[in-house]
Amino acid sequence: TIKFSVVMDGDDIDIGDRVHITATFSKLSPLYKSNSLSEGIFLDADINELHSVTKDSDPFYTFLGKLRLYIKNVVFSSSKDDPAGVINALVTGDRSHISDELYAATKTVGVTHFLVVSGLHLSIVSAAILLAAKKLGFKKRIAIFIAFAAIALMTVICSFHASAIRSAFMSFVTLSATLAKRKAVSLNSLGFAITV
To answer: What residues contact residue 180 under an 8 Å CB cut-off, 6+ apart?
Structure first.
């Protein structure tokens, strides 16, 4: 069984449906090869024929796909082109809407890591939640559990991308240290994330 993402016209396939297809596989584009390999993508493919569709969608993938699609529609309704593509990548981890030119430029400058959900983004989310909870009068313990839930949700929305999982573990360790009234040490957090 292969899980794949596909761009199609029409409403024949719903997110999470099971399909039988005939496809032609090809080598990865040199521009995206190193990025694709790091994400576990080893081949590119063109769909030649769709044989059948089983409409017993996997509920988890259906929910996840529709949530990601909703976020993408909201982002693209407010902005267009590369700005929307970058925002979509930062929220959902989907970089497919970033132009080749922008991606090549970020690769040349060496800042492609800003286009994935990482520790920087989860730290901003955690800090924003803790600050908002403090302003609203929540206890610190409750605010931390809300931050845990938000980090877990972002990891799910990003389809459990490796950088998001690593960052989530580090964020959990840092926030847990606060719960245990201990000082968070970045090397301990990193070591724990690597071990897990």
So the answer is: none
DSSP reduced 3-state for 7: coil
114 DSSP assignment = G
Confidence of residue 84 (pLDDT cuts 50, 70, 90): confident
Rounded CA separation 45/6 (Å) = 9
Tens of pLDDT, residues 115-142? 777 777 788 888 898 899 889 988 888 8
Contacts 24+ apart (CB under 8 A), 104-109: 104/31
CA angle (157 as vertex; 165, 189 as ends), nearest 5: 20
CA-wise closest residue to 47 among 8, 84, 11 = 8
pLDDT at position 5 is 62
Q: Report the C-alpha gap between 138 and 192 in whole angstroms.
A: 29
CA distance 95 to 86: 7
Q: What is the pLDDT of residues 147-187, one digit of tens each?
A: 899 888 888 887 777 778 888 888 888 888 778 777 767 77
Tokens of 184: 């968070």
Tell me phi and psi for residue 53, to 5 degrees. Answer: -130, 130
The pTM assigned to this predicted structure is 0.61
Closest CA to 15 of 69, 52, 83, 87: 69
What burial class does residue 188 get, using C-beta atoms within 10 Å of its C-beta: 0-12 exposed, 13-18 middle, 19+ buried?
A: middle
